[in-house]
Design goal:
The chain is an alpha/beta fold. Helix content is 43%, strand content 21%. It has two domains: 9-252, Dihydropteroate synthase-like (TIM Barrel); 260-349, Sulfite Reductase Hemoprotein, domain 1, CATH 3.30.413. It has helices at residues 36-49, 61-73, 86-94, 110-122, 138-144, 149-165, 180-193, 208-224, 239-252, 275-286, 304-310, 336-348, and strands at residues 9-12, 15-18, 24-28, 53-57, 78-82, 99-102, 127-132, 171-176, 198-200, 230-231, 260-264, 293-298, 313-318, 321-326, 329-335. The protein starts with 8 loop residues before the first strand and ends with a helix. Bound molecules: iron/sulfur cluster.
Length: 350
Amino acid sequence: MYAREQTKSVRVGNLIIGGNAPISVQSMTTTDTRNVSDTIAQIKKMEIEGCELVRVAVPDLKSCYSLPLIKKEINIPLVADIHYDYKLALKSIELGVDGLRINPGNIRNVEKIKSVIKSAREKSLPIRFGINSGSLDKDIFKKYNKVTPKALIESAKNIITVLEEVNYHNIIFSIKSINVIDTIQANNIFSSKFNYPLHLGITEAGPPFQGTIKSSIGIGLLLYQGIGNTIRVSLTGDPIEEIKVGYEILKALHLRKRGLNLISCPTCARCKVDLNKIIKKVERQFCNINKPLTIAVMGCMVNGPGEAREADIGVAFDKKNGVLFKKGKIIAKCSDKIIIRRLLEEIKNG
Ligand code: SF4
């Protein structure tokens, strides 16, 4: 793992992004923002899953008026996602959001951007400028004839020139493409030139199976290089899945610790128990814990005991019998009928 790139730090509500702050996990609601109760209910579920910042789409004035009502009921920073209409950004600031995400590809007028900055500055609000492959500035697209890492960086540079002209540094950047390699290259270039915090993601990554793989590779490779300060996994589906995947990426890179880390083998002819069923049971029991806990469930004694010993607690099966390990020591040997009960008891008792 490379050393983390040092960036400026930015405060969004009660969350610090950049500097030495932990890499945070964020997501976006899928509800209609005008529907306050549904939006609050979804954010509450996201908070339980560990979401540390939530973004809501603000496509119209009525959505703006939902913002203070939503903010009052939630515990994580609320960011308004604005496209096209800078007046919605001004209204969202006035109504008390913790931050803005605006797209310089579709709010292109410099004076309008400056007026948003002026209002944000008065309230010390950070703004994320999100450069997306799908909404790249038209002139830049024409110049490069397609979306390329250089085109994305040129778009970022243009807006940075405006921001630096007015001495506004309370900013976060994101440079996302549907193309994983372009995203990696563009963020590498950005990080070598600027020290603003980076929000990472692969845009429109797809449904959970494909999107998880693309996001894990794109976000994971960048984080491994020390690049990135906050992440959003973008999936077509429940935002809860986005948060879960986000934490799994961070856990795999040892950047955050949270909840269950399940080690289990793929099974083979040596396995004499129904390991799938056992794993599902363990997952069900411990999917909601926040405390970091590594559990190993292994199908036989070949690699089983070795892996189980590395975990906080683990079990390896020897035909129909299970051997229970805790902190590297064998604490029980019993039949598969009762070993899982023992495993669950031991975990619950700490
Ligand atoms: Fe097969 Fe045993 Fe390895 Fe599982 S741990 S895959 S059962 S050899």
